[in-house]
Amino acid sequence: ELKAINPKVTITFYPYDVTVPIAETKKLLKTIFDKLKTVDILINGAGILDDHQIERTIAVNYTGLVNTTTAILDFWDKRKGGPGGIICNIGSVTGFNAIYQVPVYSGTKAAVVNFTSSLAKLAPITGVTAYTVNPGITRTTLVHKF
Asked: Does residue 3 sit within a domain?
C-alpha cells in the first residue's frame, strides 16, 4: 500500500519479535544497516495491555524496548564511531498517572519514561537523541480486554 502511494519509495519489511535476545536484535539491525547504510530514527512502538500475562507484558513493553534501544546504540553511539540518531519510544500517560486496574502495564510505561529520560541526558556524549511519546487511551484492539 505504501509503495502504491509513492512508487519512488523503497519499502522493506523485516518481521521482528521484540522479545528475542539482544544478540538476535543486533543481527537483524546489522542486516538492516548493511542494506540501507543509514538509519536515522528508531520508533519503538510495540506494546500490549494484558496484566494477566505479566511476564509477556514486561517483555514486550519494557525489556524489548530496552534491548532494541541498546542494540541500535552499537551502530549509532558516537563514542564507537557512529553517526548518532533519534530514538522515539512509545510510552503512555500511564507512565505518569497509573491506571490502578492495570498496574503492570502502567509500571512498564513508567519504566519506559524513566529509561528514555536517562538516555536523553546522555545525548551530548552518545549523539543519540531520545524522546518518549505518551499518548492517552485510544480505542484500539489494545484496550478490548481492558
From this structure: no
Active-site annotation holder among 14, 100, 105, 131? 105
Q: What is the model's pLDDT at position 144?
A: 65
Q: Give the pLDDT band (50/70/90) at residue 32.
A: very high
> Does the active-site annotation cover 105?
yes
Using alpha carbons, select from 70, 58, 68, 75 the residue that is nearest to residue 110: 58
CA distance linking residue 44 with residue 18, whole number of Å: 9
Q: To the nearest whole number, what is the mean pLDDT of the chain?
A: 93
Residue 1 placed within a domain: no
Count of structural domains, the chain: 1
- pLDDT of the residue at 145: 61
CATH number for position 58 = 3.40.50.720
